[in-house]
Amino acid sequence: MEETLRSLQQEAIEKVNEAQDLKALNDVRVAYLGKKGPVTEALKGMGKLSAEERPKMGALANEVRGAITETIEAKQAILEKEAVEKKLQSETIDVTLPGRPVKSGNHHPLTMIVEEIEDLFIGMGYTIAEGPEVEKDYYNFEALNLPKGHPARDMQDSFYISEETLLRTHTSPVQARTMELADGKGPIKIICPGKVYRRDTDDATHSHQFTQIEGLVVDEHIRMSDLKGTLNVFAKKMFGEDREIRLRPSFFPFTEPSVEMDISCKICGGEGCRVCKGTGWIEILGAGMVHPNVLEMAGFDSSKYSGFAFGMGPERIAMLKYGIDDIRHYYTNDTRFLKQFSEKE
């Protein structure tokens, strides 16, 4: 048995040295040291040995197994190192070759308009306020002088989640929340950008989801002239210094008096064309003086404080500024459309 074990040891070591890769080496390990290997089979014959020979043969068997295992591990280390070196050589990169250009994205036109408006008003001393898109009926309507059953609620066909919860139909709830947090003390000077939702049929000029930016100023001695001056600066900065503005009487439940603001048509310079429908003016936003009821509900003394508010749609502003003819272009993710704005800043 001793001769058998020594012979197996020598034979196994020769096979290990002949192995050219890790798979062949593993085959040798399984062939000689596996459950059905010759070393294991030889050990099964120890039962036939005398009590004096068994310890000696057991020690020899462990020695043979250990020698084979040690040789396999040494060979494995060599083969693994060779495999790594071979892989490194095959994956060598020539750093002197010109790199592949990486296509970078660009701002969405709506993002560009929103950021431009934010920068403009931040420069005028405003701060940015945000609020939840899933809003309470109280802040979306009641705190803005629109009690339950008010006919003006029909102007904003809403997505209700429950009787008292809905997707906000405008960003005015942010104004109501901000005034409430102010605890009746001014000044307040904010703009509120964000998404809003209304039940509407999507077409070239309407969408069930769109963006709004509203502004609010509350302080002592705020007048209509302050609102007009603010809107005039906004129009000239956004559309050009030669733009003129026009305020027309309108109605909004949360402002009194209320106005619609038009800007002189950039295309025809006020002469009248297809874009402005021959009027020379283009409607751009709604505004007005904050209704005393809204101030009182937020905890402000309307005899001491006054304010103005305005609201605009970045989609419409982007359409006018960039000549976009269909609001659906904003949401269809057509890269041909988006690439047009990669150079606009």
From TrEMBL:
Keyword Phosphoprotein: no
A GO CC annotation given for this chain: cytoplasm
Residues holding Mg(2+): E256
Cofactor: Mg(2+)
Cofactor annotation remark: Binds 2 magnesium ions per tetramer.
Gene3D superfamilies attached to this UniProt entry: Bira Bifunctional Protein, Domain 2 (3.30.930.10)
Quaternary data: Tetramer of two alpha and two beta subunits.
Record-linked HAMAP family: Phe_tRNA_synth_alpha1
Annotated PANTHER family: PHENYLALANINE--TRNA LIGASE, MITOCHONDRIAL, PHENYLALANYL-TRNA SYNTHETASE
Similarity comment text for this entry: Belongs to the class-II aminoacyl-tRNA synthetase family. Phe-tRNA synthetase alpha subunit type 1 subfamily.
Protein name: Phenylalanine--tRNA ligase alpha subunit
Organism: Rossellomorea marisflavi
